[in-house]
Design goal:
Strand order of the largest sheet: 1-17-3-13-14
Number of strands: 21
Order of helices and strands: HEEEEEEEEHEEEHEEEEEEHHEEEEHHH
Number of domains: 3
Number of helices: 8
Helix content: 40-55%
């Protein structure tokens, strides 16, 4: 009788014992991991879609785009939002707003390290706001002295600073102490005085300060200079000077010049670009969902998330929102519809007609409170919360399932080892018996 290899036999039989379980566990683990990966892809696509919606739903963004065309560039620019009505206007820029700048009349030979008083106060007032700087606080290095550089830093760092920047300007060997208002306009004129210092030269320096730049408001005319409607503003931006139109002036015109023509009209290409960004983001999300949820057929593999309740819910809710009426109209009425494959498509002619008729009303469908973009953001939010979002919960369950299978695999490895040890002992003993029998039978030959 020939002997057998106990190790080979033990390995084969122990493998046969656990092989069905290994196969089943591996299939389950692969399925859970595929679902986990697919959910991650869909979640990422949903975040990208939400990001697109958030950008278009901000205070400074709009779907409907209008534009301003100027007959002459260089004097002002126009910002136009969806509420602007088409029309032609004339604008004359008489003056631009400037900020107040003054230079203290410091003694000749002043430098950044020149000493200044550290007793008394320096009062700076801008538009009714007052900063009273205690000069005793400006000594930051503890040497018992105050310098012009330390005074500059103390003004700029003071928590009650009313909107003034202190600067040291050096030219021709001289150092000049300057104060500049951070805002333009006459209302932001700087007044400054020093008192209680015991140093007349220091107090006189501010009393006799020289204006470097005189503060003034911006002034424009809607229509010709002198006969149109005069408008003034402390800054160079006139917000909503016309409904939906803001003007920023940059350069004054010469007296007697003709006003600049400004035509306001719809920007159809800009609007299409905005709308197509939304359509592309939604369709990309739908394509991602479809790639993992197809039901399957003879020629199509069933998706790993086919019938998944989380994915089915988000798809259904978004689809319903796009079929809902907003501002009294459905999206289909203005040219935006869902085709048979679940994708958004645009009827440009119908949308352009709606924009030309009432762009503000059309904009309100998308950006109005509780309308499309708000509704989309509110619907998406529960799915994407980091702590307890529906996607996170669904992925946590799958990860727990994978962990349980890992635990079963560990148990299976112990079962394999026990089977292997048992078979090895049995076949080792059998080999010994066979060897003994072979030895006994040889005595009778």
């Amino acid at each position: 009788m020939s002997s057998m290899d106990p190790i080979t036999m033990a390995t084969q039989l122990a493998t046969f014992d656990v092989q069905p379980f290994q196969h089943r566990y591996q299939l389950q683990a692969n399925q859970y991991q595929s679902q986990l990966t697919a959910l991650g892809k869909i979640e990422s696509a949903l975040r990208e879609f939400r990001s697109t919606v958030e950008k278009m739903n901000s205070a400074t963004a709009s779907v409907i785009q209008n534009a301003a065309t100027l007959s002459q560039e260089g004097n002002f620019s126009a910002s136009v939002d969806a509420n602007a009505l088409s029309g032609s206007y004339q604008v004359f820029v008489e003056q631009v707003a400037t900020a107040h700048q003054l230079s203290a009349n410091m003694p000749a030979g002043t430098t950044a390290e020149s000493e200044v008083p550290i007793t008394g106060t320096l009062d700076i007032t801008v538009n009714g706001e007052v900063m009273s700087l205690d000069l005793n606080t400006i000594d930051t290095d503890g040497d018992g002295k105050g310098t012009l550089a330390e005074l500059t830093s103390a003004i700029n760092a003071n928590t009650t600073n009313p909107g003034v920047n202190a600067t040291l300007v050096r030219t021709d060997g001289e150092t000049h102490f300057m104060l500049s208002s951070s805002k333009t306009g006459q209302a932001n004129t700087i007044t400054v005085s020093a008192s209680g210092t015991g140093q007349a030269w220091f107090e006189d320096a501010f009393t006799n300060a020289t204006d470097i730049s005189t503060p003034q408001d911006a002034k424009i005319w809607l229509g010709p200079q002198g006969t149109g409607l005069a408008l003034t503003n402390s800054s160079n931006t006139f917000s909503n000077v016309i409904d939906g139109v803001s003007l920023t002036v940059t350069k004054a015109q010469a007296a007697g010049e003709q006003p600049i023509g400004m035509d306001i009209g719809t920007d159809q290409e800009g609007t299409k670009k905005q709308l197509n960004a939304f359509i592309d983001a939604y369709n990309s999300l739908v394509s991602t969902i479809d790639s993992y949820t197809q039901s399957g057929s003879e020629n199509e593999k069933r998706g790993v998330l086919a019938g998944d309740p989380t994915v089915r819910s988000i798809e259904s809710q978004l689809n319903n929102l796009l079929r809902t009426e907003y501002n009294g109209k459905s999206l289909m009425e203005v040219g935006l519809s869902i085709n048979r494959s679940g994708k958004l498509e645009l009827d440009s002619a119908r949308f352009e007609a709606a924009q030309a008729t009432d762009g503000a009303s059309l904009e309100a469908m998308f950006n109005g409170d509780g309308n499309l973009f708000d509704s989309l953001e509110q619907t998406i939010e529960p799915f994407l919360k980091f702590s307890n979002g529906l996607f996170k919960s669904r992925k946590d369950v799958l990860q727990q399932n994978i962990s349980r299978i890992d635990d079963k695999q560990v148990t299976l490895e112990r079962k394999y080892q026990m089977s292997y040890d048992r078979y090895l002992a049995q076949f080792t003993q059998m080999n010994a018996l066979m060897a003994q029998m072979n030895q006994t039978s040889s005595l009778f030959m």
